[in-house]
Amino acid sequence: MKVLAAMSGGVDSAVAAARAVEAGHDVVGVHLALSRMPGTLRTGSRGCCTIEDSSDAWRACETLGIPFYVWDFSSRFKEDVVDDFIAEYAAGRTPNPCMRCNEKIKFEALLDKALALGFDAVCTGHYAELIESEDGTRQLHRAADWAKDQSYVLGVLTEEQLRHCLFPLGRTPSKDAVRAEAAERGLSVAKKPDSHDICFIPDGDTRGWLAEQIEMRSGPIVDPDGAQIGEHDGAEAYTVGQRRGLKLGRPAADGKPRFVLEIRPKENTVVAGPKELLEIDRITGIRLSWAGAPVPQASTGEPFDIDLQIRAHADPVPARAWVPLDPQSPAEEAELIVELGAPLRGVAPGQTAVMYQGTRVLGQATIDTARSRDYQAAGALD
């Protein structure tokens, strides 16, 4: 099989490519240039797309004896990931840029180009497992090492995309085992630190970076009853669940800390209140997609049981979901309604809700609304 190995410059993608070579595939390595700042260098262990990463990817391919190329996806990355990130924050939502990058860059733009060039599959170092079901369709499952499981960020992949994916690390018991294997293979990235944070905000200061992209205006911070308790310097830079940086002028009557409950960008208002009002029991999702064949209930409107995960490393919670039938709306506009069996705290519109049944990833939706019964009872939400 002709395989295109996406080489991030890290240890995971290097070992994944090595295993693809060892399996007898015809492998070509490619590093994606996502930044138009070629002089950008790694700061500590932050980021994943620097000039150093490109060099590390090249050295790994040299060691493996496979061709290496750099593809410039910077324009597509800016449009689909960076600009989307800014627009979502400006609309009062909290996006997941890594999820959008997987959806639009690594498994849309990259895979489309790979298939057009005659490759059969794209190989990455993600920790997730692909299993072929009895009817021949592919299912996405959690990795053997739950501590490193990355199936959450792959929840945006479609059945067609899964047919052209390789995740060689899915059954690996631990990251330590991957590093040991890299060392045995003579890969120089064996001890390279993991990347973290948002790659296009290398210093990790999301608020400061957003202030340079969005025109921030000061406005009121109000409590759930609408009484002003402080002033913010830009509602777009806040996110639901945030505690630090509120600068409240009036202490709460009970003396307890207050948290961001809601962002109202049209009113340029931030709502803050007690922690218990962050507990969410109902979610509405949009941009629904299925990772493999949809569950049968998706076409009937009947409810189905799931475990719901809203962050990459969060614990899933039991829930019941359904897809309301609306003959007037096309399938791509279908909504997902989720009633949680246990409350989740600090859920923000814009986050991604990924559905599981056991280890299998069913699909995902972007959170449009997150509702708390207690908050509704206080009259703060419709």
TrEMBL record:
Superkingdom of origin: Bacteria
Record-listed E.C. numbers: 2.8.1.13
Domain named tRNA-specific 2-thiouridylase MnmA-like central: residues: 209-273
tRNA-specific 2-thiouridylase MnmA-like C-terminal domain residues: 283-367
Gene3D superfamilies reported for this sequence: Adenine nucleotide alpha hydrolases-like domains, HUPs, Translation factors
GO molecular function terms noted in the UniProt entry: tRNA-uridine 2-sulfurtransferase activity
UniProt site (Interaction with tRNA): 126, 351
Record-linked CDD domains: MnmA_TRMU-like (cd01998)
Membrane keyword on record: no
InterPro entries: MnmA-like, MnmA-like_C, MnmA-like_central, MnmA-like_central_sf, Rossmann-like_a/b/a_fold
Keyword flag Membrane: no
Record-annotated active site: 101 (nucleophile), 199 (cysteine persulfide intermediate)
Start and end residues of each stretch annotated as Interaction with tRNA: 148-150
Keyword annotations from UniProtKB, A to Z: ATP-binding, Cytoplasm, Disulfide bond, Nucleotide-binding, RNA-binding, Transferase, tRNA processing, tRNA-binding
Pfam families, sorted: tRNA_Me_trans, tRNA_Me_trans_C, tRNA_Me_trans_M
Residues involved in ATP binding: 6-13, 32, 125
Reaction(s) this enzyme catalyzes, per UniProt: S-sulfanyl-L-cysteinyl-[protein] + uridine(34) in tRNA + AH2 + ATP = 2-thiouridine(34) in tRNA + L-cysteinyl-[protein] + A + AMP + diphosphate + H(+)
Annotated localization: Cytoplasm
Task performed by this protein: Catalyzes the 2-thiolation of uridine at the wobble position (U34) of tRNA, leading to the formation of s(2)U34.
HAMAP family linked: tRNA_thiouridyl_MnmA
Family as reported in the entry's similarity comment: Belongs to the MnmA/TRMU family.
Name by which UniProt lists this protein: tRNA-specific 2-thiouridylase MnmA
Organism, scientific name: Nesterenkonia aerolata
Gene that produces this protein: mnmA
